[in-house]
Amino acid sequence: MTQQFAERATNVAPTGARNADLSDLIRILEDGQRRKLDVIAPASALRMREGNVHVEGVESLITEDGVTDVDGIYRPTALADEGISEKLRIPLAYLRRMRAENVPLLDENVNAWLGERPERRFMLRAFRGENGPGMPPAEGVARALLSDSYKLMDNLDMLLAALDGVQKSGHPTRITGCDLTDRRMYVRVESEAVAVQARSLLRGYRSPFDGRSGDELPMISAGFVITNSEVGDGAYTITPRAVIQVCRNGLTETKDVMRAVHYGGRQDQGVVSWSGQTQRKTLELITSKTTDAVRTFLSQDYVEAKVHEMEAAAGKTLDEPTKTIEHVTKTLSIGNEAKDMILAHFVRGGQMMAGGVMQAVTSTAQTLTDADQAAALEALAVPALMAAAAHG
User: Fold this and answer.
1) Interval 166-176: pLDDT, tens
2) If DSSP states are collapsed to H, E and C, what string results for 207-269?
3) Of residues 5, 348, 307, the one with CA closest to residue 363
């Protein structure tokens, strides 16, 4: 399986994976857990200097494992900059321009707004940097600036709880790919034991990757995708996902999503650490919800009903496919680069009907290197089908 890993900075936990195996994802998440630092800090303890977040005057955490130093320098990711923009009400485009063109002005703006309400508290999610013995602390990474009531539901904990729920459901499944970005984790699960024929949906379609025919392999497998964000970019979710076997295109049904939000009560100042009881209750709930969701989404009746809904629209012939795709991409706010790729995939797929537009959207999603963009495009497959059928 193709794997791509990206380290964000020297001595900082890697956060990127695309189409990785489960074992590789867990390795990255374990490394991140080892280096993570979550702290509730007042605005008075935060300063921007040379474009980096400086934490000053926050009490260290002393445990049986040693002392966790909080004070230090943390380089913001693009997502952390988004959090700074939101929390301090600095327009994001302006913040990005200052970072690119005038860092001293960025420092001045951020510090001025932090100073307006020095008692206001934030949660800073970060990775600690690491250096060798006797060396000064390395620069870390500021991953996100969040509300002090943000509830920590880390990717590794959520993943293990979800996999426990999958096992308890009793369904035979396999993990077909994992993605990890600065924003979200995605784990795709499939059950070929739950598959339905979709001859009407796949009639005349051929894979744009190898030319195999949907008429010869008209099967759709049941599945779902587990997602979570550690940095405020979405809830923990389980979303049903259908997999078209002839081309491995996947499409998600977002209206049936199961979610758990990252919101809790205000937390004490200092380093954040879950109590064992709180963590256990949260993860037990995630396991239970996952088990229920899997039993629903991997039901033969559920998959057949969804296929039937799609087939009702997929057979609509398109008189002017190019104009239809133009309409669909504009309606769904799909950019020009992706629109051109969808049109090319539509032509190669050979299915000159509304269903061909859906297939082109999902096959295009497979080719994207950005996992967040790919997931967003998969979620638009069914809306694209309906928009294409309505436009004709």
Assistant:
1) 999 888 999 99
2) CCCCCCECCCCCEEEEEEEEEECCCCCCCEEEEEEEEECCCCEEEECHHHCEEECCECCCCCC
3) 348
DSSP for 4-35, written as a single string: EEE-SSTTS---EEEEE-HHHHHHHHHHHHHH
Strands (E), the chain: 4-6, 16-20, 36-42, 46-49, 52-55, 61-63, 66-68, 72-76, 121-127, 140-147, 174-180, 185-197, 219-228, 236-244, 249-252, 258-260, 270-271
Which tens digits make up the pLDDT trace of 29-68? 999 988 888 999 999 999 999 999 999 988 776 555 556 6
Pair 252, 241: CB distance under 8 Å: yes
Give CA–CA dist 72/70, Å, rounded: 6
Count of CB atoms situated within 10 Å of the CB of 15: 26
Across-strand partners of 353?
317
Phi, psi of 129 (to 5 degrees): -80, 165
- Residues ≥6 apart with Cβ < 8 Å to 377: 334, 338, 361, 362, 364, 365, 368
What is the per-residue burial (b if ≥16 Cβ within 10 Å, else e) of 345-370? Answer: bbebbbbebbbbbbbbbbbbbbebee
Three-class DSSP category at 192: strand
Residue 150, SS3 per DSSP:
strand
Angstrom distances, CA of residue 125 to CA of 26, 110, 278? 20, 18, 19
What 3-state DSSP class applies to 203? coil
**If DSSP codes are grouped into helix, strand and coil, which group holds residue 144?**
strand
- Which one, of 348, 335, 343, lies nearest residue 361 by Cα? 343
Distance from chain centroid for Cα 104 = 33
Partners of 5 in the β-ladder: 17
Burial of 377 (0-12, 13-18, 19+ CB in 10 A): buried
Tens digit of each residue's pLDDT (9 = 90 or more) over 182-234: 999 999 999 989 999 999 999 999 999 999 999 999 999 999 999 999 999 98
